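writing this on my phone so excuse typos. first protein, seq and then structure
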Amino acid sequence: MSPVLVASDLDRTLIYSAAALALTMPDARAPRLLCVEVHESRPLSYLTETAAELLVELGDRAVFVPTTTRTRKQYQRINLPGPAPSYAICANGGHLLVDGVSDPDWHSAVLARLAEECAPLAEVRDHLAATADPLWVRKHRVAEDLFAYLVVERELLPEEWVKELAVWAENRGWTVSLQGRKIYAVPKPLTKSAAVREVARRTGASLTLAAGDSLLDADLLLAADLGWRPGHGELAESDWTAPGISALPERGVAAGERILREFLRAARQA
């Protein structure tokens, strides 16, 4: 039988920071949480214990592929329950990890496509440096020499500036995504979906399932046979949907648990 491939975004889809948990129920009814990421000796990301059990079962039934905008270093901080995935996608598709090691041929092909189809990273960095106000910018960052992002004070961030940046980037082959306190500027050809299609080709998967919450996950969801988005995030805020995509009502860490239940249900049916 051909395997089922499950490609899922991580942050605010399967795993959640303390600020993103959305524990709106009474304290006595809050779910037990498992910490899956520590950074600088502090717990950073969580899922529910039930979600952890579901993820272990999913790993037995499908090819589970973490699919993230995180850099390789940031991804490697995460310690998910169950066996280490054979494949993982980092840097929004810029790196395809095979048993934890970046595939050099894949990465070289990505770099060639970026050089051909969009403005260089240096131009985008210079624009961000020139237009972003230090009043609300806390950090300028470059990820894997592939894309740039800002860490901002969200309550001070002018909405018009983000819209203007999106238009500027669009004309240069880049896209902009606002996720929590981070504004990402990412080349359009740098996609999770392209890397997921490559994993599907290598594994011979007959069915691809996906989940994600942000604008950068839209192409991933569209490339899958079935997809889910939580009740929070950029896609929910814009009421984004498409055929085969289910919009879940759950928000926060409860959405992560629901997504894993949906993955397992679909994998069992397959």
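second protein below, same order as before
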Amino acid sequence: MNIVVGVTIIALVIGMGIVAASLYFYKLAVKRSSKSFLSGDPDTEIAKEWKRHAEENQQWLSRQSYEDVEIQSYDGLKLHGYYMAAKQPTNKLAILVHGYSGQGRDMVSYASIYYDSLGYNVLMPDNRGHGLSEGHYIGFGWHDRKDYLKWIEYLITRFGNEVELVLHGVSMGGATVLMTSGEELPEQVKVIVADCAYTSVYDQLTYQLKQMFRLPSFPLLSTTSLVCRLRAGYSFKEATALKQVERAKTPILFIHGEEDTFVPTQMVYPLHARCKSDKELWIVPKAAHGASILVDYDGYVEKVKNFVNRYIPV
């Protein structure tokens, strides 16, 4: 009996430890909060360079006229975005999707490509759980895909059926636009650009558990996924870009840095392979996570312009 009691106590202690660790990891990775654990990671330190570049470009943004816009999400959240009207009237518009723990204004470097080089209108939303948008958790692109359907609906209603849309996302934003690609998109969505996207939330967190914490995925990821299901309404395995691109009908440009060790470069190959729509893959030499635009700015602009113009003629 003592052995049985002892084993039971040990099992309870282990179980309580797993529960506590799962709650902690949910708070760390999914709950809306400061993501200070990212500081010091070599790849995100490199990625900070483009954020500094974006901060420098805030001067560019300050010279532009932009409008704060709001919509309501499918589940009742207030979502915020920054809208910039093109210098000359046009029906062409780029929706720019930021990464994990960022905000819409972080996409200003990409905004200047569409605004200055292509003459587009630009929308830079704050994802749920980020910036000025409501939400107590990070959707990792999964619930956000439904939010972007709402943004698309808003733009078509506001600007008419003749509007032509590009979705361009980076990092989590890249995964978000790929997850969106598998939905029934209106014909106004002409092009998708996905820069350094992950295959699925489960794959990305499995990789980061090993990379950052030296931990195996089992059992912590499964139990944390259950916590996420209960608190945020989705599981890590269902939040997959791989299955979504199999249903995609919109042309997709895949971009990934050759030296990305935060969202490992090898993730882009199955995404590209499974994509059923027109597609192109560009691996950027010597580029770390989110740094392709810095490593080869001119090449980045040219690649995006050429791909976008192929489906939205000038």
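The chain has a mean pLDDT of 90. thats all i got for now
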